[in-house]
Amino acid sequence: EPEVTQTPSHQVTQMGQEVILRCVPISNHLYFYWYRQILGQKVEFLVSFYNNEISEKSEIFDDQFSVERPDGSNFTLKIRSTKLEDSAMYFCASSGTGGKNIDFGDGTRLSIL
Amino acid sequence: AQTVTQSQPEMSVQEAETVTLSCTYDTSESDYYLFWYKQPPSRQMILVIRQEAYKQQNATENRFSVNFQKAAKSFSLKISDSQLGDAAMYFCAYNHAGGTSYGKLTFGQGTILTVHP
């Protein structure tokens, strides 16, 4: 069964450094998303991406964040200058049309030191 | 904006018994999807069950079923014959079915379910 793949599973980065989280969505999906979950809290929407552009973003997704689909398979989330409060689990997700079936990756745990 | 509320931070159940997790939501939309996700300690997000708002019939997946009350904006999850492997955090989530907000899920705060042997 096709699945969303995220790498790495755990990323440790020094505060102020740039980090790139990588995702390979399901191949025939058209919509891509990033979500964040700070430890012990609920899952929060960051951004959605469709047709090579951002379709919606939350207030969390400020200028420090960017997303890209550099080729036909990868979908990346970049944080330019990480802060301690960026420590969280980051989930990539993808879907076909309509938002009925949204598949999540296993997440990348980002730890900022 | 849509909101999702799970009023039970924690619930517990004896193995083989039945437990119901509550969820309410607020929306002005008429067409949407509701989901229950399970998050075990590994922190994966596992889809348990989905309900389409236009369907009156409650969704069922094996031991998992929902009680969807559209007018009351209530969406509870019933787990029958609870098993030790059901122990996890459970999140209720809402997704608008139209416009450009595909996949912009709004999650509740979660309910930690403990299953006692």
Element layout with pairings:
The complex is a heterodimer of chains A (113) and B (117).
Chain A: E1 5-7, E2 10-13, E3 19-24, E4 31-37, E5 44-50, E6 53-57, E7 65-68, E8 75-79, E9 88-95, E10 102-104, E11 108-112
Parallel strand pairs in A: 2-11
Antiparallel strand pairs in A: 1-3, 3-8, 4-5, 4-9, 5-6, 7-8, 9-10, 9-11
Chain B: E1 3-5, E2 10-14, E3 19-21, E4 24-26, E5 32-39, E6 46-52, E7 60-61, E8 64-69, E9 74-79, E10 88-96, E11 106-107, E12 111-116
Parallel strand pairs in B: 2-12
Antiparallel strand pairs in B: 1-4, 3-9, 5-6, 5-10, 7-8, 8-9, 10-11, 10-12
In words, what does this structure look like?
By secondary structure, chain A is an all-beta fold. Chain A is 0% helix and 50% strand. Chain A is built from no helices and eleven strands. Chain A has strands at 5-7, 10-13, 19-24, 31-37, 44-50, 53-57, 65-68, 75-79, 88-95, 102-104, 108-112. The N and C termini of chain A lie far apart (37 Å). The model of chain A has no long low-confidence stretch (mean pLDDT 93). Chain B is mainly β and 117 residues long. Chain B is built from no helices and twelve strands. The model of chain B has no long low-confidence stretch (mean pLDDT 93). The A-B interface holds A 31, 33, 35, 37, 41-45, 48, 50, 55-56, 89, 91, 93-95, 97-102, 104, 106-107, 109 and B 33, 35, 42-45, 47, 50, 52, 91, 93, 95-97, 100-110.
